[in-house]
Design goal:
Layout: H1 2-19, H2 26-47, H3 55-76, H4 83-101, H5 126-138, E1 145-150, H6 157-165, H7 168-173, E2 176-181, H8 188-199, H9 209-213, H10 217-228, E3 233-238, H11 247-254, E4 262-267, H12 272-275, E5 279-283, H13 289-300, H14 317-324, H15 331-344, H16 349-357, H17 362-367, H18 369-374, H19 380-385, E6 395-396, H20 397-408, H21 414-422, E7 427-428, E8 435-437, H22 440-453, E9 456-459, E10 470-475, E11 492-497, E12 516-518, E13 539-541, E14 562-564, E15 571-572, E16 585-587, E17 591-592, E18 607-612, H23 613-616, E19 632-638, H24 644-651, E20 659-664, E21 684-688, E22 704-708, H25 717-720, E23 728-732, E24 739-742, E25 752-756, E26 763-766, E27 776-780, E28 800-804, H26 807-814, E29 824-828
Parallel strand pairs: 1-4, 1-5, 2-3, 3-4, 9-10, 10-11, 11-12, 12-13, 13-14, 14-16, 15-17, 16-18, 18-19, 19-20, 20-21, 21-22, 22-23, 23-25, 24-26, 25-27, 27-28, 28-29
Antiparallel strand pairs: 6-8, 7-8
């Protein structure tokens, strides 16, 4: 029976393909052939009698029939751009049929995770509940709106969704509610049946569950549409996997007349289909230390687990909080640790103290294993290499991509940052998407996977059976122990810790294959001459140390691509550095060089920061013209006598130049910058220094502008508002006036506006139709600005407001009506 159904489908697809051969494109034919090939393999699976004719197999076949007909409809309506999703689900059906054949995932018992009762121990959700409810109630669209509760595994997504689902206001507003834990179901058909059984009250006009099983998917969707048409409903799809196709369900719900339908999804990532629809993402954040302790204390003492004499002693609160730092604010980890301790039933302070020292955090990593298995396989190598970095550190995007490229050959890594953020591996910590953080628990999981997958070790705490390729050395202030064994196989070497480094100069001679050396934030004072023996080195990170001089032996590092010596005060650089033609990225600050830079011999240079104008532009030399690939440049020490027109003229000829920072000389005004408009390709611009006036034109492609310490006397907004491509604007001590005026229709594309340290600003006026797409407004340390313009209420795209101001102003703005519709409000005195 099953085989006959699939063969009939294949005949229809083959017939359609033959009819379309002359009309279809090469890509359409290829897509159809892939679908048919997958179905042919499915036939081979169902022919094996071991797979049986069970309920779940029938459900999978129902999904297959649904997807095949759906693919035909899409082809007929020329919507081939979504065939990839259909193809992926058919592949998923094939995989799940094989699992049934092997007896895996074949159990048909219902999972208890469909339970939507409240958790007994919950802390820190009040603000999250307020924000999500505001989103659900305030946004009223004709089509159902999606609210995605997103975050890494164990951070409380399902707990928040349960609180929303059972909230009194939700129960009152939505007569029909349904909850499906999608990760517990094998097929789309199961989802449709579960929804129908929940949203139809008292079984009115509803067939029995067994009769629903006999229906095809299209009929089930039609019934769902009919029962919900014009009615207020809330559907929660919990733990949504990436591969499941949501389009059919969404289309069935969108056909109804307006009734206030809402769909809430919890997932560690944002489903590709949802991204193409109107949706709100609510990102779950880790608990702060106070909330972490409350959750721990309530969990360990909850219920009747412990008698009064076995309660966790208050005098050990400090030690307990130190221990909880390893949990990184992750509720899953905090509860796991609390439950471990509760089961051991200590009765004295000494016993509790011993238990705190013996906590096994490895069990938490086991709980995160399913999350790791769900990650996109293409992201797993990037995930493992995150183990090289310090726990709880801020990760710079450029450093990450450079390390990935050198250590693992992972090129074009910029395209994978979105994937890591989307799947909640790392979180952005600024609006530029240039800084990231990783949860400490997830970082420990990356260490475990790196030990298994890429030959990683932490010197002294882990030891591989084979030869390590990547090593982290943890150093204390008073001790540095090292071994020369197995060093010749190392590709990367990272130093973490206090900076006590007493290794002999010969230490560096054993690293024959070392490509990456990172000593950032280590407190290093001297770099030995023997560093020149690392002839394979491609990345050398020396940022934020106390190095006074680079040894001349760096000239032997003929393959060095990245040299980072930024944040070393007054470091002397040998002239030979400017003859190293392998360099791609050079990061500097407060550098002493005896001669002007001869960067024309570095044709591959892409990044150069921070360089003095006089070292860069001197005499009649046109050094910049040789930098064909230059993308980013930071120039400092500009004053009124600086000939910036020559700099702009040279930069305008560089095809790939995109990012420019100009810093003025201390206590002097910067020169006239009217030539900036000639840099048509520049995307990001930062001007740091006093300006007598704004330049009369800006780069046409400019998307991000920062004005810092400009101290302008004239309101900059009338001119800046005409920059039609500007997405982000930061004004930091940039204006000394009292009035700031944003005119009608200005800032047509602006998404982020940050105003900081405008000490005299008293009045911010916004005309109608200005800032149409603004989504984030941040105001810091503007002590005279005690009100927000009433027009803020009309900024429909505004989602987030952050303010740091006085206590009185904070209270006044919180009580005003102007912020009532903004989803995320954070006002701190």
């Amino acid at each position: 029976m099953v085989e006959a159904v699939i063969l009939s489908l294949m005949q229809k697809l083959n017939k359609y393909q033959e009819e379309r051969t002359d009309k279809a494109s090469h890509y359409e034919i290829g897509d159809m052939e892939r679908v048919i090939k997958e179905m042919r393999e499915i036939v081979d699976i169902v022919r094996d009698k071991k797979s049986g004719e069970g309920r779940r197999l029938r459900y999978l076949v129902s999904d297959l029939v649904h997807m095949a007909h759906y693919a035909l409809d899409l082809y007929k309506h020329r919507q081939t751009h979504v065939i990839e999703c259909i193809y992926n689900w058919i592949g998923e059906i094939k995989m799940r049929m094989r699992m049934l054949k092997l007896g895996v995932d074949g159990a048909e018992a219902e999972s208890n995770s469909e339970n939507v009762d409240e958790d007994h121990v919950v802390v820190g959700l009040d603000k999250h509940i307020e924000v999500v409810l505001r989103t659900i109630f305030f946004h009223k669209l004709e089509n159902p709106s999606w609210v995605v509760i997103k975050g890494m595994s164990g951070i409380g997504k399902t707990t928040l969704a349960r609180a929303i689902y059972n909230h009194a206001d939700v129960i009152d507003r939505f007569k029909y509610r349904a909850w499906v834990c999608v990760s517990n179901v094998l097929t789309l058909k199961e989802i449709f049946i579960k929804l129908l059984l929940q949203v139809v009250v008292d079984g009115e006009n509803l067939h029995t569950s067994s009769s629903l099983e006999e229906m095809d998917n299209q009929t089930l969707l039609y019934m769902l549409h009919q029962h919900l048409q014009g009615l207020p409903y809330l559907i929660v799809l919990d733990d949504l996997p990436k591969q499941i196709p949501l389009r059919p369900l969404c289309e069935a719900l969108q056909k109804q007349e307006y009734g206030g339908g809402k769909l809430v999804v919890t997932s560690h990532m944002t489903h590709q289909f949802i991204k193409t629809r109107w949706h709100d993402v609510h990102k779950m954040e880790p608990l702060d230390p106070i909330m972490s302790w409350q959750l721990f204390y309530k969990t360990i003492n909850s219920g009747n687990k412990l008698r009064s004499e076995q309660k966790f002693p208050k005098e050990l609160e400090y030690q307990g909080k130190l221990m909880l730092r390893k949990c990184g604010g992750l509720p899953l980890a905090i509860k796991e640790v609390a439950n471990q301790l509760a089961q051991k039933k200590a009765s004295t302070g000494t016993e509790w103290e011993h238990l705190l020292d013996s906590v096994d955090f490895g069990s938490t990593l086991e709980l995160l294993e399913p999350y790791y298995q769900k990650l996109d396989p293409e992201l797993l190598p990037f995930f493992m290499y995150l183990a090289l970095f310090k726990e709880n550190t801020t990760l710079r995007k450029n450093k990450l991509s450079q390390i990935w490229e050198v250590a693992g050959g992972l090129y074009d890594s910029h395209s994978y940052f979105d994937g890591l953020v989307d799947e909640s591996v790392i979180d952005e910590v600024n609006d530029k998407s240039t800084r990231y953080r990783m949860n400490p628990v997830l970082h420990r999981l990356s260490i475990k996977k790196a030990e298994e997958g890429i030959g990683f070790e932490i010197h002294g705490s882990t030891r591989l059976n084979g030869n390590p390729r990547h090593r982290v050395i943890m150093c204390s202030r008073d001790n540095f122990s090292y071994s020369t064994n197995q060093d010749k196989y190392l590709v990367s070497l990272f130093f973490h810790g206090g900076g006590y480094f007493n290794a002999s100069p010969s230490y560096w001679k054993g690293f024959e294959k070392l490509k990456i050396l990172d000593l950032e934030d280590f407190g290093l004072k001297i770099l030995p001459e023997t560093i020149g023996t690392l002839t394979k080195l491609r990345y050398m990170g020396l940022r934020n140390n106390y190095i006074k001089e680079l040894p001349k032996s760096v000239r032997f590092l003929e393959k060095l691509e990245v040299l980072d010596i930024a944040q070393n005060f007054m470091v002397q650089v040998p002239d030979i550095v400017w003859e190293m033609d392998s360099l791609h990225h050079v990061y500097m600050s407060d550098v002493i060089s005896k001669k002007p830079y001869k960067i024309h011999v570095q044709p591959w240079l892409k990044t150069l920061t921070s360089v003095s104008f006089d070292d860069l532009i001197y005499d009649d030399h046109d050094e910049l013209l040789g930098l064909t690939w230059l993308e980013k440049l930071s120039v400092h020490d500009l004053d009124g006598n600086t000939n910036v027109s020559k700099l702009f003229g040279l930069l305008s000829n560089l095809k790939y130049f995109r990012h420019l920072t100009l810093r003025g000389h201390r206590f002097r005004s910067m020169p006239c910058l009217d030539g900036l408009g000639t840099l048509q390709r520049v995307r990001t611009l930062k001007l740091d220094g006093r300006l007598d006036r704004l330049p009369n034109s800006f780069p046409y492609m400019l998307t991000s502008l920062t004005l810092a310490n400009s101290c302008l006397n004239e309101d900059p907004m009338p001119l800046l508002g005409k920059l039609t491509r500007l997405l982000k604007l930061i004004l930091r001590n940039a204006y000394t006036g009292q009035q700031m005026y944003i005119h009608e229709f200005d800032f047509k594309a602006l998404e982020v506006l940050c105003i900081e340290n405008l000490l005299n600003l008293r009045n911010l006026q916004i005309e109608e139709a200005a800032l149409k797409y603004l989504r984030k407004l941040e105001i810091r340390n503007c002590p005279c600005l005690d009100t927000l313009p009433k027009e803020v209420r009309s900024l429909y795209s505004l989602e987030e407001l952050k303010m740091v101001t006085t206590k009185a102003i904070s209270t006044k703005i919180r009580n005003s009506r102007s912020i009532s519709k903004i989803r995320f409000v954070n006002i701190n005195p």
